[in-house]
Design a protein that fits this description.
Blueprint: H1 3-15, H2 20-34, H3 42-52, H4 60-73, H5 76-88, H6 94-110, H7 113-130, H8 135-145, H9 156-165, H10 169-175, H11 177-198, H12 202-215, H13 217-239, H14 245-263, H15 272-302, H16 305-316, H17 320-337, H18 340-357, H19 362-376, H20 384-393, H21 397-420, H22 423-426
Helix pairs in contact: 1-2, 2-15, 3-15, 4-7, 4-14, 4-15, 5-6, 5-13, 6-7, 6-8, 6-11, 6-13, 7-8, 7-20, 8-20, 8-21, 9-18, 9-19, 11-21, 13-14, 15-18, 16-18, 17-18, 17-19, 18-19, 19-21, 20-21
Length: 430
């Protein structure tokens, strides 16, 4: 069975709404089922699935998922938002900018884009609407800024990429800091432009600011300092060598639990089991997708698909600039229709040798890939962030996507800069 037929069957499975994990399992088994001489039998696929999830670095993923859910229930995003509003609220576009920076910091805690949208959006979108901002704009800015959750470390997609390529998780985390901050800066610039053009209800905003001022700076700082310290502790443990990324993820869980139980007292002991069940329900589908994606990528390797695709691309696109633009387009399209985990595990072995051939650093390519896939979070038809944001406000998904287009444009500008200026990603690496 040819690779083309395999991918056509995969596409058909997705079109008829078969879950992606099952679709990947089906196409992983098919080559061995139709060709008895092919190495990848059904038994091989099952062993690959089990072997694919037997990884110590991978343990970081359920830990970060659990930490993110603990922080959402612990109202940690609210504490972050208050301190940023206190400093920015009186300035033009201060409240939307505070939302973007909150997404930036919460992304550095949760490692997940949808989790960032859900936690930050559920608290900030009603406030933005209350202060006079348009409902679709308020929803769109959270949906787009939530994409920072997969770029700012710790990032679950970076862990997946490291697992697929053998690169250092710590280096990938470090490489994501500057690109994430640059994208945040571009989104802040757009928010400023939008608010300057459309105006703001300064009276309502001032009333909100007066409430915060009454609490006093030190009271707000006292409440928020524990939330602000979370990414510092997690990333500090990784980069000082105190803990590996997986160990840091465990530290994040216990820190979130301690702060939520004893400092903010926002969750009760009896709620812990329910939170753990929620985390398991969130991670279980990811785990199955991960297992089947790993098996499928190994089957593709045995079919020599990476070599064939690499040879075809190198033959038809010899110019380095054109080649990188083509790869970006491919990744953007894949991000629109496929979840990040299978996209990373399937495409990394195919595309990495190609970019290495033109001298691109694997860490640099990892950042480029993740930023591409982050755009997919806010582009239909998959657009997970759009679905999450829409569920919070009942604004139609396509309406959010339309309002988000200028912000996606700034995301794309950042992507081009990241692609062609390696120093943006690699400047913090020694």
């Amino acid at each position: 069975m040819s690779a083309v037929v395999v991918f056509i069957i995969f596409a058909i499975c997705l079109v008829i709404a078969i879950p992606i994990s099952i679709s990947l399992g089906i196409v992983a088994v098919l080559p061995g089922a139709f060709d008895a001489s092919f190495t990848a039998s059904a038994g091989y696929v099952i062993r690959s699935m089990v072997g694919g999830i037997d990884s110590f670095p991978l343990l970081a993923v359920p830990m970060f998922v659990l930490a993110g859910i603990l922080m959402a229930h612990g109202k940690i995003s609210e504490k972050l938002f208050d301190v940023f509003v206190y400093f920015l609220g009186n300035k033009r576009a201060g409240i939307p900018c505070a939302v973007i920076i909150t997404c930036l910091f919460y992304g550095a805690i949760s490692g997940s884009a949808p989790a960032t949208v859900a936690a930050v959006g559920s608290m900030t979108i009603p406030l933005l609407i209350e202060l006079g901002y348009e409902k679709d704009f308020s929803t769109a800015i959270v949906a787009v800024a939530g994409g920072l959750g997969v770029i700012i470390p710790p990032s679950i997609p970076f862990i997946m990429y490291a697992m697929a390529t053998g690169e250092s998780v710590s280096d990938l985390f470090l490489a994501g800091i500057v690109p994430g901050m640059m994208i945040s800066a571009l989104l802040i610039f757009y928010a400023y432009y939008y608010c300057r053009r459309h105006g703001e209800d300064r009276e309502k905003i001032q009333a909100k600011m007066n409430q915060l001022k009454e609490k006093g700076f030190f009271n707000i700082l006292k409440e928020s300092i524990w939330a602000l310290l979370s990414p510092v502790i997690v990333l500090g443990c990784i980069y000082t060598g105190v803990a590996s990324p997986t160990e840091a993820a465990v530290i994040s869980v216990f820190y979130s639990l301690f702060v939520s139980l004893f400092i903010y007292k926002s969750i009760k002991v009896k709620q812990i089991w329910g939170i753990m069940v929620e985390a398991m329900k969130t991670y279980a589908p990811i785990l199955f997708i991960l297992a089947t994606s790993t098996a499928f990528s190994r089957v593709l390797t045995l079919m020599q698909v990476p070599q064939d695709v690499s040879a075809w691309i190198m033959t038809h696109f010899s110019n380095e600039i054109v080649l990188l633009l083509v790869i970006n387009v491919v990744l953007l399209i894949v991000g629109m229709v496929m979840d990040t985990t299978p996209a990373i595990l399937i495409l990394s072995p195919i595309l990495l040798p190609i970019v290495q051939h033109v001298g691109m650093n694997p860490i640099h390519f990892g950042v480029m890939m993740i930023v591409n896939l982050a755009v997919g979070f806010v582009t239909p038809p998959v657009g997970v962030n759009l679905f999450v944001a829409s569920s919070l406000t009942n604004v139609p998904m396509m309406q959010i996507a339309k309002k988000a287009m200028p912000m996606i444009g700034y995301f794309m500008l950042a992507l081009l800069l990241i692609t062609f200026i390696p120093a943006i990603s690699l400047c913090l690496l020694s």
